[in-house]
Structure formats: C-alpha cells, structure tokens
Amino acid sequence: MRVFIMPGHTLSGAGTGAVGHINEGEQNRVLTEKIVYWLKQGGADVVTNKLDKAKTSSYLAEQVALCNNLPKFDVVVQIHFNAGSSDRDSNTTGTETWYYNDAGKVYADRVNQKLGSHFRVRGSKQSTGLYWLKHTRDTAILIETCFVDDKDDANVYNANKDCIGKDIAEAILGKNIETSTPPESKIFYRVVSGSYNDRNNADKTVQELKDKGYDAFIDIYKK
User: Residue 187's pLDDT is what?
Assistant: First the structure.
C-alpha cells in the first residue's frame, strides 16, 4: 500500500495552526512521525513531507503540490488538531475525520473507529470545500485528532501519543500491526593480553594465543 502523509499547517508565517493546551503546528508534526513509523512497521510504502514555512500566502497550494507532484498514492492523509471547544465538562470534545468521496469515507470511518477508544467520536464528515480534500489528486482524508483547547482532549492525547499514532496507522492500513520486542543486545567481554611498541612482538603474541586456541587479533591505536 502506498501512502502519503503530512502534518497540516506551518510553524511560522502564513498558515500556522491553533494553540491551546496543545500547539497544533508542533503536534501535527510529532504525531505524523509516529504514524509514519507504524505505517512502515505495517509494511506500507510511505512518503511524508511537511511545509514549515510557506514561500507564498498560498500555503495550502504549496502543501498539495508536495503530494500531487509525486506518483499516485492509494490514500493521502493530512494530520490536524481541532479548535473551538467549549470545554465545559470532564469529557473530551472529540475526534473527527473529513473525506471528499466514498473512497475516502472508508478510511475516515476506520480512523474514527480506532480513535474512539481515546476520544468521543464526532463522526466522519464529508467536505467538497476543504482545500486538501478538493485539490489532492488521490483519495484523501483530513484527520482532526482532538481539540487543542479542551484540557481533557489534551490530557488523553499527551498520555497516549504512541498508541494514537499506531491506531491511525492501523486504520489507514485496515489491519492490526504486529509488534515485536527487538532481541536484547548480547554483552561480550574482551580480554587484552598486552600492549607493544614493536610490531614483531605483537605478531608473536597473537600467534602464541592462536596456537593455544584463542581468537586473537591486533588493534592498532596511537597514544
């Protein structure tokens, strides 16, 4: 599966994101990196890019160009955080995913289902006006992970970033990603039998050790 994914917004100039309990521009990038990691673990062919500072006021067009100028993808994804929460209770305001057509809705529904284990689900929402969805060439979704101005959303997100990244990756791929613990590094203890300033003496000692069945070698260093 071939996936393009990028963080929404810029870090400075035109197109910066919302700021509250979460800085959207920064966390768009943090979460995107986590999703990319898990997509690769799941076997996807992943391409990612970002626009930290726009060259013009048309930063949305610049973002889309980063995607459309490449060979075709199965799905193109942009990561965002929402804003405008009333934050009047102890519950999360929630997550939502936007799509352009029926092909995108399949991905949006899966993302919402996965993120529903963390946040209240606001649903899959169709838009033919959002720039990312309208102007990207391939099947596209835009994920509003949670609300930057709801402390409950922020607390859940900050405590579960890795899991949220994995959940989004699994939703995109439509399968669970098996995790494995890397093997522990083995510890070896090296024995040094001598240090010589005459190469002949060093060669002689190595040969004596080899004759006795030891694996020996010369390590050259300058003092």
Answer: 62
Rg for the chain, CA atoms, rounded? 26
At residue 203, the pLDDT reads 80
* Domain assignment present for 165: yes
- Domain presence at residue 77: yes
Per-residue model confidence as pLDDT tens digits over 170-191: 999 999 998 755 445 456 566 7
pTM of the predicted model as reported, rounded to 2 decimal places: 0.80
- Interval 70-85: pLDDT, tens: 999 999 999 999 999 9
Q: How far is CA 151 from the centre of its chain?
A: 23
* Domain presence at residue 169: yes
Q: Which is nearest to 38 in space by CA: 154, 164, 141, 157?
A: 164
Total domains, the chain: 1
Domain span at residue 96?
Answer: 2-173
Q: Residue 41: which CATH number?
A: 3.40.630.40
- Closest listed residue to residue 172, CA positions, set 74, 67, 47: 74
What is the C-alpha to C-alpha distance for residues 209 and 75, in angstroms, rounded to an integer? 61
- Nearest-angstrom CA–CA distance, 7 and 15: 12
Q: Is residue 49 in a domain? A: yes
